[in-house]
Specification:
elongated; 46% helix; five-stranded mixed sheet; 228 residues; Beta-Lactamase; alpha+beta; 5 strands
Length: 228
């Protein structure tokens, strides 16, 4: 700690530590992890001890509240993914499956934009939406997701207009998921966009989104009689 270097050489005294904390009242706020290893005082008389316990209890309550909120959000997201999967599995035609994947997912997953895309080498085909599927230029999926990756999550100022079209201005966070229908077909893309900048973030768990994508791949293969 700055200002008590001499004490550090000989071993910190209780007074030196107390004086430093007194001069830096926000120390525990900036180093909250110490509250997990400190031994709390016993309930004895004294206003200072009561204040310390109150602070630690408030900190634990706040941490617990954040944990509960995160858990509820995860459960809600899981339920939405399950509903989306059931909807795709229940499609009675390939056209209905495409409609669910390119339109209904926005409602089922509480999103602002959803795009189902497939790369095509045909000239002037990129950007068109035949049958609800966005035609992508070759290399688009790898450009958006990265080589060797299956998903890319991030928040941003505005979505990719080439992908989200007119809805790009609404998108503040997005999930780009690679779709591999078979070894003999070009790569596909499931693009999810939200106006909530915290909806998709780098480092966030993507297992449920990848599960959704794998089910969509399976459904497409089944309807088009494709092999892996």
């Amino acid at each position: 700690m700055p200002g008590i270097a001499d004490d550090a050489q000989a071993g910190l005294s209780d007074k030196a530590v107390a004086d430093y904390l007194f001069d830096h009242p926000d120390f525990l706020i900036n180093h909250g992890e110490l509250l997990r290893v400190l031994t709390p005082p016993s309930w004895v008389s004294g206003e200072n001890i009561v204040d310390m316990q109150t602070f630690m209890i408030d900190r634990l309550r706040a941490d617990n509240g954040r944990l509960i909120s995160t858990t509820r959000g995860n459960l809600s997201g899981q339920a939405r993914i399950h509903d989306a999967v059931l909807a795709m599995l229940g499609a009675t035609s390939f056209e209905e499956l495409v409609h669910i994947a390119s339109t209904d997912l926005a409602i089922l997953l509480d999103l602002d934009a959803v795009v189902l895309g497939v790369e095509s080498a045909e000239a002037d085909a990129a950007g068109k939406h035949p049958g609800g599927v966005c035609v992508l230029a070759p290399g688009t999926v790898e450009r958006l997701i990265g080589k060797g990756r299956d998903v890319c999550l991030k928040n941003l100022d505005e979505g990719d207009e080439a992908i989200f079209g007119a809805a790009a201005g609404l998108v503040c966070s997005q999930a780009m998921i690679r779709l591999n229908f078979s070894d003999n077909t070009p790569p596909g893309l499931l693009a999810l966009g939200s106006r909530d900048c915290d909806k998709f973030q780098n480092g966030q768990g993507s297992e449920l989104l990848l599960f959704l994508a794998r089910v969509l791949e399976h459904c497409v293969r089944a309807w088009l009689y494709l092999t892996d």
